[in-house]
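Provenance

Sequences were taken from public entries as deposited. Structures were produced by running a predictor on each sequence independently, with no templates supplied. The record for Cobalt-zinc-cadmium resistance protein from Caloramator australicus RC3 is shown for reference.
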Amino acid sequence: MLTDILIKKFIKNAEDERKSLGLLSGYVGIFINLILFIIKLIIGFLSNSISITADAFNNFSDMGSSVITIIGFKLSDKPADKEHPFGHGRGEYIAGLIVSIMVILVGFEFLKSSFSKILHPEKLKFSLLSFFILIISISFKLWLGRFNSRLAKITNSNILDATSLDSFSDVLITSTVALGFLLSKYINFPLDGYIGLIVALFIIFAGYKLIKETISPLLGEAPDPKLVDEIISELLSYEYIIGVHDIIIHSYGHKTHLVSVHAEVPSNIDIMELHEMIDKAENEISKKLNITLIIHMDPVNMDDNEVLEAKKEVIKILKDYPEVLSFHDFRIIGHNDKKSIIFDLVVSHDVLKKDEPTLIKDIISKITNIHPNYKVIIHIDRDYIQLH
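Predicted structure for Cobalt-zinc-cadmium resistance protein:
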C-alpha cells in the first residue's frame, strides 16, 4: 500500500520512470537507514554492545550506498555527448562498485573491533526497550527489502536488486544481534563479540556479492539470451536472410546496446536489392528492440553442387570435434586445379589460443585427405553470446 503511494507520488512521467524509481529507492533508503543508524548507535553506546554498534554502522554504510545509488542513477540518465557517444549508462555500474567497496571496508573494520571485544570482553547492559527497538528495526528492514525488490522488478536494475538483497541480509544480521543481546542477559560469555564477528562476516560477504554483480557488466558479460533470441528471430523474418552468425553485443547501460551481426544472404540476388533489405532490417529492428544494429552482409552460394558436396564432407569431419560449435562463411574460390576451401570455425571457450593451430592443422589434414586438390583455409571465431 505504502509502496504504491510512493511510486505514484514520485513518478512524474513515463519517460523518467526508471530514473525516478531509482532516486525514490535512494531517498527512502537514506531516510530509513539514518533513523536506524542513530537509534542503534545510541543503544550500542548505552548497552556497551559491539554487535549493535557494528549493526548501526552497517546501516550507516547502507545509507552511503543509497547516496551513491542516487548519484549512479542521475549519472546514467545523462544524455550522450561528444566524449561519451553511447551515453553514461555504465555510471550505474561504477556507483554500484563504489558501494560494494564501502560495504567491505565497514565489514573489515568491525571484524577487527569484534576480535578486540572477544579478547577484552565487557559486561552488556541489557534493556528491554532497546531489545524491542531492535525488533522494530527488523520490520523496517523487511519492508525496505520488499520495497526495493518491487522497484528492481519494475526497473530491471542490478543495483536495486542488490540493495534489496542487502536489506534482507540486514534482517538476518539484526535478528542475530537481537538474539545475542537477549541471551547476554542470562550467560556470562563474550557472546556479543562473537555475534559482532558474524555480523562483520555477513557485511563482507554482502560486499563481495555486490562487487561480483556490479563489476561483471563493466568487464563485458555475456548478453541476455532473451535479447539474443529476439535479434535472431527478427533477422530471420526478413525474406533474403537465411542465417546469422558473429553476433556481438556491447552494453552501455540499461537499454543501450550496440549490436553487430553477420547476415547470410543468397549470392544470386541483385546486390542493390539486398542492400536495400539490409538497410530496412537495421532500421526496423533497431527501433523495435531499442538497440543500435549494424549488419554485415555475407553472400552464400546456394546452387553450386561442388560447394554443397564439400560442405557435407566438412560437416561429417567436424562431428568428431565436440569443441567445434559451428562453422559459417563456407565457400570455394579459384579455378581448375587452384581452388581453396575457406570457412570460419566457431570453437568453445575451452579451446585455448595456443591450441588453435593444432586444432586447425588436424581438421585441414582430414579435409585434404578427401579433397587433396583443394587448399584449405580456416579462420577461428569465438562465441560471444553463450547460446551453445
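The radius of gyration is 29 Å.
The chain has a mean pLDDT of 83.
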